[in-house]
């Protein structure tokens, strides 16, 4: 594991995650510390398709997409931290625990997803993460979530 922090711009994110518009929910990931922690950034804009039908006239980012953005941040962290870029990495939700929503996220907000690995090791298949999404330092959502990592370490090492 490297001790230097790293970041991922949108081009690198797309080399790690299979998600694309309208379901790619992370614009960049900063402060990547191996596969231990990272901060994802999502610039919330009115142009996103869920705002057409999720409380029309009072657009609010759906809570499930906030949790998905935290999970995508964790996926980028794993991709960079374990150096498995361009490896067809797939990560699947297994469960979501202790999920709470604390404030609305609306167009114009900058959502920061702070994720940490609670359990999991290089080459492992099961990971548990803790996530906290904030806007201007105020907690918008928090959750613990587990994921199954579908990768072939022979191709990625």
UniProtKB/TrEMBL annotation:
GO biological process: fatty acid biosynthetic process; lipid A biosynthetic process
GO molecular function, one term: (3R)-hydroxyacyl-[acyl-carrier-protein] dehydratase activity
Record keywords, A-Z: Cytoplasm, Lipid A biosynthesis, Lipid biosynthesis, Lipid metabolism, Lyase
Location, primary (coarse class): cytoplasm
Pfam families membership: FabA
GO CC term, one of those recorded: membrane
Catalytic activity annotation: a (3R)-hydroxyacyl-[ACP] = a (2E)-enoyl-[ACP] + H2O
Top-level taxon: Bacteria
EC number assigned by the record: 4.2.1.59
Coiled coil segments of this chain: none
Positions annotated as active site in the UniProt record: 54
Subcellular location, record wording: Cytoplasm
Family, per entry: Belongs to the thioester dehydratase family. FabZ subfamily.
Function of the molecule: Involved in unsaturated fatty acids biosynthesis. Catalyzes the dehydration of short chain beta-hydroxyacyl-ACPs and long chain saturated and unsaturated beta-hydroxyacyl-ACPs.
Protein name from the UniProt record: 3-hydroxyacyl-[acyl-carrier-protein] dehydratase FabZ
Species of origin: Ruegeria conchae
């Amino acid at each position: 594991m490297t001790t230097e922090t790293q970041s991922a711009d949108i081009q690198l994110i797309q080399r790690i995650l299979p998600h694309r518009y309208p379901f790619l929910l992370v614009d960049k990931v900063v402060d990547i510390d191996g596969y231990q922690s990272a901060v994802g950034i999502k610039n919330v804009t009115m142009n996103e398709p869920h705002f057409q039908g999720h409380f029309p006239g009072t657009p609010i980012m759906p809570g499930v997409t906030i949790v998905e953005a935290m999970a995508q941040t964790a996926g980028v962290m794993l991709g960079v931290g374990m150096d498995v870029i361009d490896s067809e990495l797939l990560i699947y939700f297994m469960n979501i625990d202790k999920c709470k929503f604390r404030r609305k996220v609306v167009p114009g907000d900058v959502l920061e997803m702070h994720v940490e690995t609670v359990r999991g090791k290089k080459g492992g298949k099961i990971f548990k993460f803790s996530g906290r999404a904030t806007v201007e330092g105020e907690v918008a959502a928090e959750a613990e979530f587990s994921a199954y990592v579908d990768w072939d370490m022979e191709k990625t090492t």
